[in-house]
Amino acid sequence: MAYAYSVLGSMLNIHRDDFSPEDFKLVLQHHGIIGEGNSQCDPFAIIVKYYRLAAQQELPDGEEAAIYWWGVASNMARASPDSGFTVGELRAAISKAEEAERSRDSYLFGDNEQQGGSYEMLAKATAMHFIDESDSFVLPQVEIERDDGGSKSVSLRVNNEIVCANFDAAEKISSTFYVERNKDLAWTDTSELEKEHGYDASAPRIPPLQTLCVRELHKAGCEFAAGESDPAVIHYKALMVAAQKGGLQGC
Fold first, then answer.
1. The total number of structural domains that make up the chain
2. Which of 47, 137, 166, 238 is 20 to 30 A removed from 89 (C-alpha atoms)?
């Protein structure tokens, strides 16, 4: 489900510039993404919806959770103010992305070489620009200016004011952001924001991948997992069984 939702969000992001706003709305109505009675259609708000669903469905220690949350945050910044996204919601999504990056199971998936890319930098640059605003401040729409070829992001603007003059200077944005967020203005506890905005309302909390693996071992009736819940203990017992039997036959 996480992958399916992310594909919807990604494809909407790719094709939103291929249609006029009215035609884009007709396409969404045709595929049942929005109802025919919808008077407004903000593509970025819809993309936020699907990336958020993807993030909620992904395993907490899964490979893609962080980029999904960066997708939520960056598309919030680009949405119309009529969509009502606030600085508080942006900060909460950023915190979710950072938490997901820390929780990623690197033993299973290896080092994360992709990181958050342009999604991460756009979200951080916007959060830095509005760092003095309250959580309830409604985000204006951030616009991306590109070079003549249109393939490379150059700067971010809000109401003709430059948010980030050199969008490709990712290291500078990141370092400044992390210095500022460690001050008194830091936002680390987002529990109240999550309750207010219902980040976990549409999906039950999914256990970590290790827990799911332990459950499968229990279901399979593996003797070395019986009565145990600690993955490290189960792993040790499995090695003992392997040493005695010359393999993991029957498990």
1. 2
2. 166
Same domain, 8 and 105: yes
> Are residues 111 and 7 located together in one domain of the fold?
yes
Q: What span, in angstroms and rounded, lies between the C-alpha atoms of 213 and 241?
A: 18
User: Does residue 10 form part of some domain?
Assistant: yes
Q: How far is CA 81 from the centre of its chain?
A: 21
* Predicted confidence pLDDT, tens digits, the chain (251 residues): 888 989 888 888 888 778 887 888 888 888 788 877 666 678 899 999 999 999 988 887 888 899 999 999 999 999 999 999 999 999 989 988 988 888 887 777 777 766 667 788 888 888 888 888 888 999 988 887 766 555 555 567 777 777 666 655 544 555 455 445 545 444 445 555 555 554 554 444 556 777 778 878 888 888 888 888 788 888 888 888 878 776 544 44
**Residues constituting the chain:** 251
Domain interval for residue 237: 209-245
* Upper half-sphere CA count for residue 171 (Cβ side, 13 Å): 0
Residues 120, 100: one domain?
yes
Please work out, in degrees rounded to the nearest 5, the angle formed at the alpha carbon of residue 204 by the alpha carbons of 202 and 124.
Answer: 65
Please enumerate in sequence order all residues whose Cβ is within 8 A of that of 206, keeping only pairs 6 or more positions apart, or say none. Answer: 57, 58, 59, 60
